[in-house]
Amino acid sequence: MKKYLSLLFIVPAVWSCTFAQDAAQKKYAGEITEELAKKHLTILASPEFEGRGTGQAGGQKATEYVAQQFKEFGLIKPVNGSYFQPVSLVKSVYAVKNFSIAGKSYTYGKDFYVQGENSLQNYSADELIFIGYGIADEKYNDLNGLDIAGKVVVFINEGEPKDASGNSLITGTNKESDWTRSRLKRLQELMKKNPKLIIATSSQVAQNLTRIGGRLTSGRVSLKKADSPAVNNGIPMVIATEDMINSLLASNKTDLDQVKKKISDTKKPNSFVIKAKLRADMGNSQEDLDDPNVLGLLEGSDLKDEIVVIGGHWDHDGILPDGTIFPGADDNGTGTVAVIDIARAFSIAKKEGKGPRRSILFIAYAAEEKGLLGSNYYVENPIFPLENTVACINIDMIGRIDDKHLEGNHNYVHVIGTNKLSSELNPLVEKANEQYTGMELDGMYNDPNDPMRLYYRSDHYNFAKKGIPSLFFFSGLHPHYHTPEDTVDKIDFPMMVKREHLIFHTTWDIVNRDNKLVVDIPEDGGVR
Question: Cα separation of 390 and 519, whole Å?
């Protein structure tokens, strides 16, 4: 009888405790609102922030904004008394100071671009050699009798010579030779002859420049390494539009169409000297950058030495020299806002005595768009030991309805990584969703055969590679991805906030459970 009486008191007590925890969890999730999400996102994706580009003023503003929010929430400054962890980056830019032929100046990014790793230097020549298709084959040789060492050569970098019937002068049939099928063969063979400079053209150059021309001066960003190779002085290749080459050929009273026709009619190469002075100053330059990760710590209680990371990258594609801005409202303004919103909610919970047992490290990562560089830098230079980091939650693009769901169910979220590293990830996400948000949990990207392989393409993966159970919350791709049209007015705020709620509830479970997540699935394991 005493046992039964004891149970009568214990069961209501347990139920009461569980109910209180549930009520608290719902209360603090409710601190994440559409109003606040829209306020933060409208600022971060505004013209003032200029697309939050790496190494750009707008990016610096974004980091300062996130740090200010962390300060207002009372988060600890974990990086030697700072919210900022500078990420050692190097920006390599191919710069063209001037480029002229026969006294006419041509514009880098409009008339041509350059493939090369040479340091900044001067190039000059009093004549250029046009070498047709640039092919040196025993059956057809554009270079027959020509010494191009130390010279500037110009050639057509597509197709191959054909007769009037459309048959290749090399194969003798309508089948193309290796000179066409191999994208690099003619260039590699020309390099062996040691020209000073190579100028190539094709029908695709103008279209390519329209697409990428404005990005050429943005350069390439990578993590700086002590043993980074120095810039070499290889032979640069100028990729020029057909219009640029035709203006050059005009001095010889011909153009590309006439050259091709003469080769086709005569079945012989058509190479010749162009008497024109070339003057150019161009080459690679390098600049050190230190765009920071922004870190804020909410200290836990009895399990405070264990760390759960909640992160999303703050950077996007920035602003182009022509003034075009890529706002990145969804990518990844929404993820940055979610980090801010969830940090605020947990901070309020702690101030009211309902703080997490484990510590939460909130991170806004730098340079994700340049190759997951900020998160890579963190895991190689962790502020807290990785062996104490028990989980990583990554938030990248949670504000739109993707093409798959546009004409169907909008009440969904992609949760990526639930079948990786820990068998406990999927059950805890499903439980949180069932109890609090009721969305479709789309697992399409967890299929090992999915061609997008998104699990390997966002910041959480750098943690996963270290054996840390990781989740990636994502609403999917859309037509405005990486375009200037990724704007705030297209964000579905009710669904964005609902997804934030699921992330909050999932995190609440991870930070308050008695035991940390098991790691019982090999890194590349998982089930369909």
Answer: 9
